[in-house]
Amino acid sequence: GQLRHPAGLAVDDKGSLWVADSWNARLGQFTADGTFIAWAPDSFNRPTDLCWDEQRGGLWVAETGASRIVRLGADGSFLFAFGKGELDFPESLALDADGNIVVADTGNGLVKRFTPSGVLLDVLGMGESGRVPPLRYPQAVATGPAGDMLIAERDGAGLRFFRNTHRSLQPLNSPLPDGHGCGFPCDIEMVTGLIRTIGTTT
To answer: Please, what is the Cα angle at 98 between 93 and 101, to 5 degrees?
Structure first.
């Protein structure tokens, strides 16, 4: 069947493309040229983001509608999940250099870092002594070298940069591509510490 609101992509170690078919509540596997291979065995409640685990193999899924993160095997089979009671509509995830899972906890207005077994390590976004405002609906997160992070906020359409060496979360001075800060940032990527792509929706 057709995809309905595809919201996340990941490429596995064999070059296959995995797609979060969000409104159809499923994940699809495709060849690099777009030929359909298979659907993952289980259904999902509004999956919105995917990440392939290069260190351990398999997929991580932000299952937004269920407010949890799901771990899948290389074939898309369910392994385990975490985040129930800790996350509220998570919309994005990424892996850091140590293999930890960084999650945009959108409904709670936070970014959280978990171990691969689901143990909470860090919480960002609550503000810093009145100097840096709290995060406002973080919708996308990307990781860079040395634990740095780039966070896109939906409410205000801004970007925040977390520099791990300073343990600080600062706004970026650069506006989003529309030039005046409107539109919702929906995806970001960091390559060698730089922004490579930013998607926006209105």
So the answer is: 20
Helix (H) or strand (E) holding 106: none
**Predicted TM-score (pTM) of this structure:** 0.82
Helix (H) or strand (E) holding 133: none
Give the integer Cα–Cα distance in Å for 6 and 167.
34
pLDDT in tens, 84-122: 999 999 999 999 989 999 999 999 999 999 999 999 998
With tokens 């002594």, the residue in question is 129
| Residues contacting residue 81 through CB under 8 Å, at least 6 positions apart | 63, 66, 68, 69, 70, 71
Q: Which of 88, 73, 77, 16 is nearest to 44 (CA)?
A: 77
CA distances from 118 to 10, 29, 103, 105, 134 (A): 21, 25, 11, 14, 24
Tell me what the mean pLDDT of segment 1-13 comes to: 90
For the chain, the 3-state helix, strand and coil shares in percent, each to the nearest 5, are 5, 50, 45
**Which pLDDT value is given to residue 131?**
59
* Contact status, residue 6 vs residue 19, Cβ threshold 8 Å: yes
Distance between CA atoms of residues 171 and 48, nearest Å = 25
